Amino acid sequence: MVLVAATVLTASACNSNRGTSSTGSTSAGVTTATSASSTSSTFGTLASPCGPGSAHGATEQGVTDTSIRIGYGDDRGFSQSPGLDQEMGDAVTALIKWCNDQGGILGRKIVGDDYDAAITQVNTVMQQACKSDFMLVGEGFALDEAAESTRIGCNLAAVPGFTVGPDVANAPEMYQAVPNPVDYLPASVYYEVAKLFPQDVTAFDALHTTLTSATEVSYAKDILAAQAAGWKLANCGVKISYYGEPNYTPFAQKFQACGAKTIYNDLGPGPVLFGMMTANFQLGLKPLYVMETNDYTTQMSSWNTSGIGDNVYVRDAFVPLEEADINPAVAKYVSLVAATGGKVSQLGQQAASSFLLWATEAKACGSTLTRQCMINDLSKVHNWTGGGLHAPTDPGNNTPPQCGMLLKLTGTTFSQYYPSTKGQFDCNPEYLFKIPQSAWGTTLNSDRIATKFLSASVIKPQ
Amino acid sequence: MHLFLTYTIFGLVLGGVYAIAASGLVLTYNTSGIFNFAHGAEAMLGAFLYWEVRYGWGVPTPLALILVLGVFGPLMGGLLYLVIMRGLRNTAEVTKVVVTVALMLGMLYLSEWFWNPQTDRTVVPFFGITSQVKILGADVTTHELIALGTAVLIGLGLRLFFYRLRIGVAMRGAVDDPGLLELNGHNPERIAALSWAMGSFLAVLAGVLLTPISGGALQANSLTLLVIDAFAAAVFGRLRSIPRTYIGALVLGLAASYVLAYSPKTWQWASNFRVSLPMIVLFVVLIVLPQDRLRGASVARTRERAHLPSVRSAVIAGAALVVVVVLLRQLMNDSDITTITLGMTFAVIALSLTLLTGYAGEMNLAAVSFGAIATMVSYHIGVTGHGLASRSTLWGIVVGVIVTAVVGAVVSLPALRLRGLYLGLATMAFGVFLTDMVLMDSNPHRIPLIHTKFSLFSGGAGINSLVIPPLRIGPLDLHDGTTFLVTATVVFAVLGIGLVALRNSSYGRRLTAMKDSPAASATLGQSLLRLKLSVFMLSAAVAGLGGVLMSMALGSVTPDNFSIFLSLSLLMLTVVAGISYVSGALMGGLLSGVGFALIVSTFHDLASRHGSVHGLFSFLASFATVTPALIGIGVGRNPSGSVHDFVDSYRSLRHRPRVLVGGGAVEAVLYVLSLTNVLGHWWFAILTSVLVMFLPLVGQMSDPARREQEAAAVPLELAGIDSPYSDGLRAELDRALGIEDLLPPERLARSRRNGRRSDGSGDRSMTEPLGAGVGDAGT
Known about the structure:
Largest sheet of chain A: 7 strands, mixed
Oligomer: heterodimer
Helix content of chain B: 55-70%
Number of helices of chain B: 32
Helix content of chain A: 25-40%
Distance between the termini of chain A: 46 Å
Radius of gyration of chain A: 21 Å
Number of strands of chain A: 17
Number of helices of chain A: 13
CATH architecture of the largest domain in chain A: 3-Layer(aba) Sandwich
CATH superfamily of the largest domain in chain A: Response regulator
Strand order of the largest sheet of chain B: 1-2
Strand content of chain A: 5-15%
Strand content of chain B: under 5%
Radius of gyration of chain B: 29 Å
Shape of chain A: globular
Shape of chain B: globular
Largest sheet of chain B: 2 strands, antiparallel
Number of strands of chain B: 10
Structural class of chain A: alpha/beta
Largest interface: A-B, 89 and 91 residues
Order of helices and strands of chain A: HEEEHEHEHEHEHEEHEHEHEHEHHHEEEE
């Protein structure tokens, strides 16, 4: 039982942040900020969707004259990793309070059901939500694929914080603030690294593990996108055990032998990654590490006391927390969550952005607040930054951002490395990489909706 | 040549650490007959404590080493022996396995409790991270050299210890004949405690040496698993020879290193193969090497006891179970139903353990892994429809169960001459191999002849999970939660009744005979081969069925759903509940499928919602994770399981219909109150548990005379030892032996008078002569 869902843990660590990592689109997504102490009627650049009003009517399950009941949550009760992704739930809790303090959405107070899927209980949680909630908002369940048939079966529309399973990432009745569909990859990082370090991308390899479900599936896409950006693959034949190796030096030697100059990594921070990097260091190998956003954590930065990780570059489509002083949205997020005693991280920003997207459209629906109305409206949102939390995305078309930035780890701090102006994203339509169908992991119909659980009764945008 | 040399050195270093760990295992097994599954966890705890002392408290390295290796290691081992292991004498092999497994799980939970796994802890190698030397052109870190040197020194040291030192010779004596050793003035207890202290020291040493080699970052699970890999080396040494163990460890280390170095990149499976290599070696070694007679197998009579229910009472109990579940369903919301269904499917898997271990005395440490086989088969051939409308078919399940039975036979056939622990280890090796290698097969292969792409465990595009839709047979559609729950309960009840019937048949009696004494049973003309093979196949089939149902209840499964740890904890909880009983399987299954996960998440929920008492609730949550392990460790004191005690306590209520009816009435009232929402469901659950627990106690309290009599009753053959041999006692003896009728009337009258005077319970004792006492002595 100890290891039961340890694998799943990485699945969450990796894929969950795949959503985060989705890069942005236009150029200067976030400009310089005013002061961090903005008034409560805005969230960064977004006018607050909350406030008094006279919306009424029990228009749908969970909606009454005075309240709207939504479900949210994470896997915080996972016994192998207490507190897993709890920043998701913490963010939504804080924002619900913020919203209700202003009077709710047009006068209807938000009632939140904070679910703990604890990895294995996800289907159970989904059945509960099916019985009582209007929608799911800002949730992040690592094993979401296991509950997807339940969710679609009860038409529980969702604006998730992140999605993991391929049939969830392109699901019907689902809109994400920062999409991570199976058929498009935000590829800014490959172009940026190719431009900044042309000599290093002439030989790159991915840090493969025996865990096929999460990391290997994304590597398949990453490698294609990197090659499209001009990287040259040096297949070193390294594949380490996800559960840890007794000795990483032989693998470091393989990297050395095949001359890898850049190592691409999807694996979350932890003993396996740190062991591998330490072994490289001991051999005198100093490759460029290009990593997914899931490595932008304090676990990663606090480990780097020795400086082994000083050449770690992380892709990002969010304004990093370190820039809260210049970005009012990030500052707002940090202060709201801090006020309710929650945990702050980029995953939390992601959940917050999804909540804001949902609340904005819920306000637009007003007294006609139904799932149909929400889906109609959400499908028309094509430029979303969460008030400046992240690069612009297209939730309505489920396409990831065309923008990104590179963060660099130096000692125990991350800082923006490229573009050099803080808060600025690097954008280019070319950065949206179309993934070949063979790597999707599911089948999509002509509307790019996963067909696996699609039935005639799902709510379609009108 | 350079490559070869480099990888040889790696292999030797790894082999050296394996050797240190494995020799500790051999040491403890030899002196106490207990195979210590917690050995890896001891290494892990040692490594964590070393980190805490060295980096947390900032103690200098030499002092930290002395504290951890010199004090903590031996102390932990010694205490483990004195507090827990000593109490395992005269228990069945499975009890010993379960206690050490529980200890392993407990230590893992404990480490996660003390050292939050979300924080990273790094141990720097001795003399720093870049300190290395060149040996014939290959870079070797100083730390690795130290590890290798330590392994050599430990090997030589153990040799000298066993052959030159008196205590070492005595330790070898404890292996051969503890009785003789005692006659020569040694204390086998003290020797065993010393060997456990040494074993634990070696485990901790392995942990401290291994961590920096593997990059220095501590992770409880992987560290524990790495040391479990050393099992293969220990078995190569036949669990008694240290030199052979060393050879085994070196071979293991070198093999892993060479597979890594020379396997072609195109072999997709090579890395999974490398990871599961120790388990493959373990399996092969178990089968190929001639094994010593197992210690402990000669125990004449173990402490485990079991009553045998009749088929009639099993049918009644089965029907009652279905009724109770249907009644409870009215109180549950939909999500609870899924959870309980999951528990029920675990209970079906646990039934396979009841059959195999409870009835036949064989061991399977990977029951859930067999469920994976049935799940895969039924996924590949038994799914119809698409998306939400897709369903599993009966055909798929039937074939899946048959295939599982056949695989069970294939696994057990070569292992049939093994018994007890060795068979258990072989199944464990199989289970780990299955999850590490077979279930990891998610890349599509092209099958040569029919040119279709196929992967064993993947729903497509290399994703390592399977979606198992619910079963539909004609009108019966398990898509509905209630239908699924009732069906799973009926399946459990029918299988349970079937097992009781089996146990009552001549086949069942032959199984029990084999369990009690294989030699005697073979002497009487039983074919042990046929018995073992058939019972293993049956048991695998039951586990397969339970596994498919479990997968359906989960909806989607990953290799982790079949992890060896799951099998081990299911076995543990089933033994705790009573592995010889169908009801034990029910309780074990429900506990592992529902119980603790639910309790832990409830406490976590409470902790996150009530900020002010956050500390208390998260303590309770952490404590609840350790609880199953504590209960498992406690099984050493009560090896028959808690169901046994529970049934015993109700047995005394058999003649107290009023108490039973009263209890039933109270329960009915509670149920109605809960159904009408007067009483919360949690309260209903709590009050029901209290009622069920305390009803026997109420029965005893309300019957003081009976209680007194039972307390006073002394088995007849022990009468007169603790108390004076009175006339009354003599009269009772006469009466019990039927001498009364032979005595002349006047003497009889006298003895009756005396009897009344001395035992004080008057005529009552005449009409009910010592019945209870004699009965108790006989059971």
